[in-house]
What we know:
The structure holds two protein chains of two kinds. By secondary structure, chain A is an all-alpha fold. In chain A, 79% of the residues lie in helices and 0% in strands. Chain B is α/β, with parallel strands linked by helices. Chain B has a single domain, classed as Rossmann fold. Chain B is 36% helix and 24% strand. In chain B, helix 3 packs parallel to helix 5, helix 4 packs across helix 5 and helix 5 packs parallel to helix 6. Chain B is globular, with a radius of gyration of 18 Å. Chains A and B meet through helix 6 and helix 7 of A and helix 2, strand 6, helix 3 and helix 5 of B.
Amino acid sequence: MSNWDILWSSYDVFLNGFYNTLKLFGLSAVLAFILGSGIVFLLEGSRPRLKIPLRIFIDAMRMLPFLILAYLLYYGLPSAGIRMSAWTAGIIALVIYHGAYFAEILRGCRATFAQGQVEAAIAQGFSQPKMFMRIILPQLILKTRGLLGNQLIILLKDTAFLVIITVRELTAAASSLSSTYFIPMEAFIVVIGFYWMISIGLELLIKMIGRFGAKRGFENA
Amino acid sequence: MPETAAVSIRKLSKSFDGTEVLRDVSLEVQTGEVVSILGSSGSGKSTLLRCINWLERPDHGDIRIDGDRIGVSDSGKPMSRRELAGMRARLGMVFQGFNLWPHLSVLRNVTEAPIHVQGVSKAEAEERAMALLEKVGMVDKRNDYPYTLSGGQKQRVAIARALAMQPKVMLFDEPTSALDPELVGEVLGVIKDLSKEGYTMVLVTHEMEFARAVSDQVVFLDKGIIIEKSHPSEFFVNPKTERVRRFLELEVPVA
Lengths: 221, 255
């Protein structure tokens, strides 16, 4: 039996890992984006007391290696009496870490947003949340789609770190097969293929957003 | 008892960083009236217009829309965002820079606020929008996006968007100043039609001929003070002050 046959016979291990990675990625990406958008909304307007802590949070996350954050949540917090499952710790780590990055990307773009459009919305009687959801956020997404796409791919790759806090995702599947049968080369090549598949899907999604934007004159943003 | 003015401005003052932009400005706009605010750049005319819908907060004085004070609630406290939004919805604003929302089609630019601010049904908002786009000659472009339009077309859509909220008063802040000369006419044409239909309008403009043709009242601002307020037939023919006479000599070619 060749090494590839061994891997084929354990395809269910890969599929399970793939499924878990997708679930981790999908859930964290959605929640991180909501968190990032929420932070940018709170940075709008007249809430000076929130501004400083939010900026500190964003900068703190950006200056921290993701792996250390995951370690801290899973291995560090129990000593403070807070115990979470590996999944919960992993998702929280991904969400707050990448949420801060999403916030930074959107905030940078918000700073260059045409004030006249905001005034037009205010003059029409829009409330702040509605103006943010309907006028500002859609345009921020169209303008930053390239950066958001990069960040999503980094998020995807960061899910692989969670093998270290025992989450049974794709890299964990490869790692366990490689040590059981001692075929690291083949096992990891297979997971690279899986990561590529998800990344290509993301690229397609960003392209679709790009086409949506180009129709509206956002192609050079 | 006189009829309540559509807009009533009393003793309005406003400073930016210690520089006085408006001083003790008072002005009444009756329903159905068209009032043009003239003056050189920096005279405070745009600030005055922007105070009417509270895009700028005046330092002193009060502004009433149909008798209701904007910006300050009955208890004397500053209005909540919600109350302010309700007052602003009575005023339609058209900006020099159009300020259309580029991610929305022409039609959706016009239906957005009626649906999401007034809570009008989508069907009704679209019906209303189509009638207005017809009025400004932009029905054919309803599914296009703003970046494909010329400046004049953008401004006509912006006028339809402001009208869609069925405002009591329309405010125009130099609506043709950002347009190529050959596009000015189509926008002024639309505004003129509105004046014939009896819309109440306050207009900041540099188009003297136009102001003369559509206005019921012309107001001249100089360094934040109203120095003349009269009917256009009086204002343009027989100005009371030397300042206005000089201004008109520079702005209006001698006929």
